[in-house]
Design goal:
Blueprint (H helix, E strand, L loop, with lengths): L6 H22 L6 H8 L3 H7 L3 H10 L1 H12 L5 H12 L8 H11 L4 H28 L8 H17 L8 H12 L5 H28 L1
Helix pairs in contact: 1-2, 1-4, 1-7, 2-3, 5-6, 5-8, 6-8, 6-10, 8-9, 9-10, 10-11
Length: 225
């Protein structure tokens, strides 16, 4: 009798290949990363990669195909929130969470290089972006109605700007530095109605973080002395 494929094993191996490819593409670039390197990093033989993916381009595309269901789940999780502003900050924080990874900015650069030459990649990235923008626009509209978000903002336009801020967190990422605190402060200030307590609160948060950073620097200097 023919062997029956183990769905769980199949899923684990595919996930391992995608994870290994993401690390290498981000650090080395698409053109300079070989299938053999990806297979080795995933603990598999080179030929087995092509059992799961038609070619290297399909493997690159898989990295972004997994973003669509994640984005849908993320937006769905916040649809019933009682605090749209907090939900928006949670959403952009989660979207930017991987910006802390060493190869994050490299992956964004590779995406920009390849998207113009791959219609399927463009489609999946576009659909993910639309899910995020529509979800953020809905939260923005609710926040404006509740009075916690600047009523002068247009929800659709503001949602696009928020997505741009997330992209900037990836492009500006650097080793051993998290862009998330700055992203949250920027988003809170952008959305706050003029002259609100929230603006003052974000100013206090910024001062607290600067003071904490100064204390850490002083401790480092004392430790080296």
């Amino acid at each position: 009798m023919p062997r029956t494929a183990d769905p769980a094993l199949h899923a684990r191996r595919r996930e391992a290949i995608v994870a290994a490819a993401g690390r290498l593409f981000g650090l080395q670039g698409f053109e300079w990363t070989t299938v053999a390197q990806i297979a080795s990093a995933a603990g598999l033989s080179s030929g087995s990669v092509f059992y799961y993916f038609a070619d290297k381009q399909a493997l690159f595309r898989a990295l972004f195909e997994q973003d669509l269901p994640r984005a849908e789940a993320l937006i769905a999780r916040h649809e019933g929130t009682d605090d749209p502003l907090a939900a928006i900050i949670d959403v952009v924080t989660e979207l930017a969470a991987e910006a802390e990874d060493p190869g994050a900015s490299g992956m964004v650069v590779e995406l920009l290089r390849r998207i113009a030459h791959d219609a399927e990649l463009l489609d999946v990235v576009g659909r993910t972006s639309q899910v995020v923008r529509d979800g953020l626009a809905g939260l923005l509209a609710r926040g404006i109605e509740a009075g916690s978000i600047d009523p002068e903002l247009d929800p659709a336009e503001a949602a696009a700007w928020l997505e741009n801020m997330v992209d900037a967190a990836y492009l500006g990422a650097r080793p051993d530095h998290s862009p998330l605190p700055a992203l949250r402060r920027t988003v809170a200030r952008y959305l706050a109605p003029a002259g609100t307590e929230r603006e003052a609160g974000t100013d206090r948060e910024a001062r607290t973080e600067r003071e904490a950073g100064t204390e850490r620097e002083s401790e480092d200097i004392d430790g080296r002395a």
